[in-house]
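Contributing new records

If you add data, match the layout below exactly. Sequence lines come first and carry their own label; structure lines follow with theirs. Keep one chain per record. Anything else will be rejected by the validation script.
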Amino acid sequence: MLSDENDNFVRDFEVMPDMTLAAFHDFIIKSVGYDDCMASFFTADDYWNRQREFTLMDMGDGMGGEDAPIPMSDITLAELAVADCHRLIYQFDMIADRAFYLELVNAAQPNNSLEYPRVAFENAPVPDQYDPDAVSSDEGSIFDEMMGEFGEFDGDDSYDDEY
C-alpha cells in the first residue's frame, strides 16, 4: 500500500484470499491507526484509473445496473484476483478525495506459524487522517533511497564489469 502524499510511506500486507473487502477495510483502518470512516475501494487499471466501486454500505437503489456500487461485504480478495483485478484504490477521505494505492504483488501459501491478516513491512509514518497538509518528518523517497545504492559505481573507472 502506497500513498501519493508521502513517497516514503509503504505498507506490505499479508492477507487471506477469503477476506472480504469490508474486513480488509477494517484491517487497514486498524493498521494505520485511523478512526473508522466512510470509505470505498475501487478497482484500478494499469494507469490507476478508477473503475468498479465497492462501498461500505449497500448504496443500491434497487435498480442494480452494471455500474452500481457493490457492498464491500459481498466480495472477497480472491474474487477480485480471479477477475484479474490486481490494483485497488482505497479512498478513505471522500471530501478531500484522499486515497491509498494497493497492488497484489505476490500470492503464496500461508505460513501456519503466522496469524493473518498482518503487516509484513512498514516504512514511514502514516499520512494524517484529517489534515492532508500535515508534513511528516521523513524527507525524500524510499525509491530514491533504495536506488541510491546503485549509484556507488557512478564515475568509478576502476570498476570493470568484464572478467
